[in-house]
Amino acid sequence: MKMKLLLSCILVLALIAVPETIQLQAQEANTKPNSESQDQTPKETQEIPEENPEDPKWKKAEIRVIGDKKDLKRIPGSATIITKKFLEETRPTDNMEVLRRVPGANIRYQDPAGLTMNLGFRGVSGEVSRKVLILEDGLFTSLNPYGEPEMYYTPSIERMERIEVVKGSGSILFGPSTIGGVVNFITRRPPKDPTLNIQTIGGENAYFSQMVNYGGTFGNTGFDVNVLRKQGDGFRANQGYFVNEANLKTIHQLNEKHNLTTKVGFHQQESQATYVGLTTGMFQNNPKDNPAQNDKRTIERYSFSIGHEWSLSEKTKLITRVYSAYTERNWARQNYSRNSRGSTKPTDTLATYDGEPYTDRPGDTIWMRGTNAHRDRTYKFAGIETKLQTEIETGSIKHEIDLGTRYHLDMAKVQLLNGPTTPDFVIYPNGVGSTPAVLLQSQTSLANSGELRDDERRSAKAVSVYLQDRIRLTEKFSVIPGVRYESFTQTRSINRARRDFDPATFDYFSGTNPTVQLDKTATAKNQIVLPGFGTTLDFAKNMTWFTGVHRGFSPPRYESAISPTAEDLVLKPERSWNYETGVRGDITEYFSGQLVGYLLNFEDQIINSSAAGGNLGSRPVNAGRSIHRGVETNMTFDFGQFWKLDYQIPLDIIYTRTEAKSNQYTYNLGAWSKGDSNPFAHVDTNGNRLPYVSRDILTLSLGISSRSTGFYVRVEWQYFSKQFHDLENSKTVSWYDTAGTTANNRTILNYVGIKSDVSGLDGEIPAYELVNANIGYKKDNWSVFLSGKNLQDRKYISSRLPEGIQPGPFRQVNFGVTLQL
C-alpha cells in the first residue's frame, strides 16, 4: 500500500509541478540598516544567507524559503526566526526544547524524548499541537490536517537549519489550524560544492544520535541526502526508543524560467510511549518510575512532493506543488486500573505499582492488567496547490500580491483490537499433577494482536482560496489586506463498534458491550471566510511599527464532527479573532528588540468529555469561549559590540505575560438537557485561567563567542510560573481522603473547587525553573561541543495529561563532534 501510494503520486506528479517549500513570510533580518530588515529574533541568533553571483539561479529562488528583506513586510505581525547558528550552539535534542524559547509558546512533555509535540501559543491549547499549523519546508506534517491534526510524527530537529514562527496576520496565507500560529521547520538546502557532514552525539540515559549528510551542486542540479539514527533509554524507566530517518531533496534548474524540486522522506520510530502517568505517591517516591513497561508505539511515515516554479516575468512567478504522505501509527497499550474508592484488585493483575509508603491511600496504586488494546491507525493525505506572486503598480501605488488555491484530500483507517487475556502459566514443582502448584503469570506475554472491536474509515476533502495584497502607499507605510476561504467536507464510516451507546450521556454503556457490525456513514460540511488586515510603518531608520487583525480557525476532529452512531453533530469550526500591535528593530548597533501586545478572542470551542481541562460536558458542542491577552518581548544587548571587543557577548531577555481566561459556564450537558438546574451539576468558569498556560515565562541567556577562535559558551535560565490542570482551577489537598470520607463531604469539597491530588490526575502544576548550558569550539571543518539540559536535575511536573503525572525531562548532558569533508 505504501509503495502504491508513492508510485501513484509520482505518476500524477509527473504532469504537475510543486513549488519550493512554502515561503513563510516570517523572514530573517538583513544586516543593512534598513527598517524593512527587522524581525523579532534576538540579534545574536540572526544569520544572513550569503549571496554568491556564481551560485545557481535556483539558490536565490523562493525554493530556499528564506527570501529577502522585503518578505517580512508581507506579515503585519510577530514573526520569529530560530537560526542555524543558534541551533548549532544549543544542540537541542527535540523540537519543544527550542520552541519554548519563542515568546508566547507553551509546551508540555508526555513521552520519553519529545517525540510527540504538544505546542500552543498565546494560551491556546497545546494538546498534540492541534491548534498550530506545523510545516516542514512548507509541507504538512500532521496525520490528517483536516480531521486529525495530531503531531504524533514530529520532524527531527537534527535535520533543521532554521525554524520560522508566524503568529500575526500573515497566517492568512496558510491553513488550517492557524488559531495558535504557524511553525515552519526548514531543512538544509543543497550546497554549492559537494560536502559530506557527519554529526555524532552521545550522552546520559544511553542517548545516541548519528546523522550523515551529503550534498552538492552538479551543473544545474543540486541535491542533499541525509540519514539519521537516534536512540536512548528516555528519562524514565521502561521508555526506550529509536528513530530512523532518510530524506532526499533535489532542485533542478530546467532553464532561466523554470525550476523543479522534489523531496522524498522516510521516518521510522519505535518507543515505549504511554498514556499512563504517575500517582502523587509514585512521583514523590520515584519520579523516574513507569508502570507501563509493555506499552509500545510504532510509527512509519513516507512522504513525497514535487514542485515547479515558473518565472513568468521579473516580477511574476507561478508556483505549483503536489504533495503526499502515508503514516502508520500502531500503539499497543496495556490495560490498567486504579485503586479508586471502593475498587478491588482485578483478578488479572500482573503487577502492582504504588507510592510507598502510601500503599493504602485510594488512588495511589496502579494495577497493570493481563490484557492490552492495539490502536492501529493508517493516515494518508495528498494535495495540489498553485500560487501566483506578482508585483504591479496602480499609479504611484505599488502592490505585492499573493493569490493561490489548493485542493486537499485526507484519508484514515482507524481500528482497535482487544488482546486476549494473558495466559496463566502453572508450574508443578514435582511434575504435572503433583501438588502444591505454583501459578505464575508472565507480564511479557501480552498479545501482539487481538480481536477487532472498532473499525472505521474517515476522510476529508478541502478546497482553499486565498488572496493577500501588500499595498505600499508610501515608501514607509503599507497596508496589507487579505482573505482566505476554506470549504471542507468530513466523512466518517463506522463499520464495527460497540453496540450499546447512550446518546443522552454520549458514552458507551459499561460492562459487557458486544461488538456489532454497523456499516453506517455520515458527512459533515463546513465553509468559512477568514479575513485579515494589517499595517507596517517605518517610523525610524531601523524601527518598524506593525498592527494586525486576522481570523484564525481550526476544523473539528472526525470524532467531534460525527457521532459514534454516524450522526452529523452540525459543529462549526473553532474560530478566533486575533489582534496585535508592536514595534521591532535595532535601537542601536548593540541593542535590538521587539515588544508586542495582543488580544485573542477564541470562540466556538468544541467542548466534550475528552477536552483538556476537565469539562463536565459529554456531547460535543460549540460552547467554549475564552479571552487571551498578553505581552511578548525579547531584547538582546551585545556587550561585545558595546565595548568594541573581538567577542559577541549577547544578553537575551525573553518574557511573556499571558492572561488566558475562560469566558463561559461549564455545563454538565446531560443534566442541562434534562432541565437540571442543580448548582452542583454546573460550574461557573468565567474568569478562570485556562489549563496548561503559565502566566509568566522568562528566559535569561548570556553567551560569549569569539569572532576569531571559534570558541563559544552559553548559559540559560528559564522560569515557568504555575499552571492549572482543569478549567475549574481546582485546588488540591493531600488530606482529602480523610476529610472527604462521606459522599456529602466530597460533593461539597468538589463544589468549592477542592480535589484530591493522590491519583495524580488532578491538581495544579507547580512553577519550575531550568538551567541549561552549552560550550563548544568550531574550526573550519570540525567542531566539538558539550551541552547540558536541566543541569540542576529538577524533578518537576510537566503535565497531568493524558492519564496522570508526566514528569518533565530530567538532566541530560551530551557530548558531540561534527566533521565536514
From TrEMBL:
Keywords for the protein's UniProt record, in alphabetical order: Cell outer membrane, Membrane, Receptor, Signal, TonB box, Transmembrane, Transmembrane beta strand, Transport
Region (Disordered): 28-59, 337-356
Ranges where the TonB-dependent receptor-like beta-barrel domain occurs: 266-791
Biased composition regions of type Polar residues, renumbered to the chain: 28-40, 337-350
Annotated InterPro entries: Beta-barrel_TonB (IPR000531), Beta-barrel_TonB_sf (IPR036942), Plug_dom (IPR012910), Plug_dom_sf (IPR037066), TonB-dep_rcpt-like (IPR039426)
Pfam families per the UniProt record, alphabetical: Plug, TonB_dep_Rec_b-barrel
A biological process term (GO) from this entry: siderophore-iron import into cell
Any GO CC annotation of this UniProt entry: cell outer membrane
Localization per Swiss-Prot or TrEMBL: Cell outer membrane
Record-annotated TonB-dependent receptor plug domain positions: 72-182
Membrane disposition: Multi-pass membrane protein
Signal peptide bounds: 1-26
Family from the record: Belongs to the TonB-dependent receptor family.
Protein name: TonB-dependent receptor
Organism encoding this protein: Leptospira bandrabouensis
